[in-house]
């Protein structure tokens, strides 16, 4: 392996937690950003799970890619495994991505394991909004996670229409009550 890239589609984009040589907007095909993971700790509980992002099959996803210096490959990979594989709801994969400048590289990415018990499946925006609106975990309210994610995506110039629909449904539910 000549290069080591990491693809981020959620908090890794703005809070990678590791050093990198280069950061570039990137596109991955065959996967989409989705609130498809039941959160039992950080944004919910087992009794009242929240939803957090996963990279699920279908579509494409704009995110950030990070090039890692060769001397730090092992350290960064160990860090990512501790961060992303806590409950093994994500699978570590090396996938092709396209950088904003047109370069095609492969990157480590963490996709959701559809066979894992925390996989929420494909939800519509209304279903997701109802779950997110009421869930709270150790890291705070689930809605704060969604609104914070959207704010960061907007700052980066990335639109996620489905996530925007979920946030819009949460706001409508609150206005109606």
UniProtKB/TrEMBL annotation:
The keyword DNA-binding does not apply. The keyword Protein transport does not apply. Keywords: Lyase. Gene3D superfamilies: Gamma-glutamyl cyclotransferase-like. Coiled coil: none annotated. Transmembrane segments: none annotated. One of its GO terms (molecular function) is glutathione specific gamma-glutamylcyclotransferase activity. InterPro entries: ChaC (IPR006840), GGCT-like (IPR013024), GGCT-like_sf (IPR036568). Its EC number is 4.3.2.7. GO terms for cellular component: cytoplasm. GO terms for biological process: glutathione catabolic process. This is glutathione-specific gamma-glutamylcyclotransferase. It comes from Rhizobium leucaenae.
